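[Meeting: bench + compute handoff]

Bench side (C.D.) handed over the final construct sequence. Compute side (W.E.) agreed to return the predicted structure before the next meeting so the bench team could plan truncations. Sequence as handed over:
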Amino acid sequence: MTYLRKHVKLVTVAVACVAIGAAGSAIATAGAASSTTSTTSTGSSTTANAPRVRKAPPSGAADHPHFLVRALERRAVQANVVVATRSGFANVTIDRGFVQSVSGQQLTIREGTKSATYKTVTLTIPSNAKVRDNRRASTLSSLTAGQRVVVVQVPQRTWVVARTVATP
């Protein structure tokens, strides 16, 4: 049995904790945001600082917990979660961003989005880490600068998942 299958509850709880934390942050940010309304010469009103409106999900999907978890999972940049296990507690760390460089077992990533940087971190990746590059088994040294990357670290295992960013 693989480690991931054996600890699927651990990873699920970690993702749920990340989602709950991000949801709380989003709610706090939305409550703190202020908007002003101005009237144009035609009599219509516009709202400044209004959040972007995304296309509505299928009927009832927005109320489903999986929709909310997936939405937050796509936007998470960095997370440290402590989860309960049968033998105590375990730390799960998730780092997500863009590869800046790879040197031996050192992976430097720029955490954030295409246009904004949260921070730059250098991670030491153990030799037994599972590395995937564009959905194929790979090695750490095959990663190239500019690739999107997600690094998940649990007590006895590390996963590195990278993919090449599509150019428009």
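W.E. noted at the follow-up: The longest helix spans residues 8-32. C.D. will use this when planning the next construct.
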